[in-house]
Amino acid sequence: MKTVDTSVLRVAYDEWNPQGEHAIVLLHGWPDSTRCWAEVAPELAAAGYRVIVPALRGFSPTTFLKPDTPRTGQLAALGRDLVELVQALDLQQPVLAGHDWGARAAANACGLEPGIASHLVMMSVGYGTNSPDQTISLEQARNYWYHWYMATPRGADSVHHERRRFTQMMWDTWAPEGWYKAAEFEATADAFDNADWPEIVLHSYRHRWGHAPGDPEYAADDAALNPAPVLSLPTLVLHGGADSCNIPAGSAGKEHFFSGPYQRQVIDGVGHFPQREAPYAVARAILDFLQAHAKTTSHAM
Fold it and tell me: Is the pTM here over 0.90, yes or no?
């Protein structure tokens, strides 16, 4: 993998078609890795795009530059990381597409730096759902058991000492049975062996519900993102109809957050990992959306 430095990270990333006219940055979620885009990225590259797939903070092989940098997982930090990655690679209005944590990072980057991207693609999460005082249904609260579990000492112990067993439970329960091969999970889970992973994961879930303080370094960014800003760039939301982590209703009814072209598509029979479960449908949906709204952006690199 290639690397590039931001203010706090040495970001590792894969790249397809470096000479592509317009860049797409694909961001993975939790618990996942850059491997999740292995079948989508070549399709986008074949369509002429430069495709960049970075590992998020805490996920190998991305590392922190300094040992004393707080290992915060707050969502504003993920957005700021992406802003700095775009700047470090000198990308001009790339498409930002993310799944789960990556979707939050992409949306937050657009909120922090309006104009940073040409298009936004969010997968498996709803926009405007970062606040600890958000309203959620009892069904969604049940699905978020792992959030509450990680707020306890026992949950922290699982994250530190049983990370593979713990995260495989998510893969087993967030999508229809039999959707993945055991060897693929094991290869993906190598990214969780990063020494920073437990601390970042625990802080991320605790902070988003107000159970841990944020890093003061990101206080201004947190303030800029709460309440969630209205975004003006063309936005596509993809959600699996069988997602048993974030129920599909969680991404519905968000049109008021977007002043530009907005489209939401539910993919029937697909769980929480659409880019893995239905990669060609996801690639096609992204390419169709970009083509439909091509006149809203410059394709200069």
Answer: yes
Residue 165 burial by Cβ neighbours in a 10 Å radius (0-12, 13-18, 19+): exposed
Distance CA 178, CA 127 (A): 29
- The residue extents of the domains of the chain are 2-296
Model pLDDT for residues 154-203, shown as the tens digit of each residue: 999 999 999 999 999 999 999 999 999 999 999 999 999 999 999 999 99
Strands 262-267 and 235-240: parallel
Q: Would you state the pLDDT for residue 56?
A: 99
Tell the burial category of 38 from Cβ atoms under 10 Å away from its Cβ (0-12, 13-18, 19+). middle
Distance of CA 187 to the CA centre of its chain: 19
How far apart CA 264 and CA 271 sit, in angstroms, is 16
CATH number belonging to the domain at 2-296, selected among 3.40.50.1820, 3.30.9.10, 1.10.730.10, 3.40.50.2000: 3.40.50.1820
CB of 79 within 8 A of CB of 204? no
Residue 3: C-alpha distances to residues 13, 52, 57, 272 (Å): 6, 11, 13, 29
Instruction: Give dist(CA 77, CA 75) in Å, integer.
Output: 5
pLDDT less than 50: residues of the chain:
296-301
The set of residues, in sequence order, having a beta carbon less than 8 Å from that of 100 and lying 6+ positions away, is: 28, 29, 30, 32, 123, 124, 125, 272
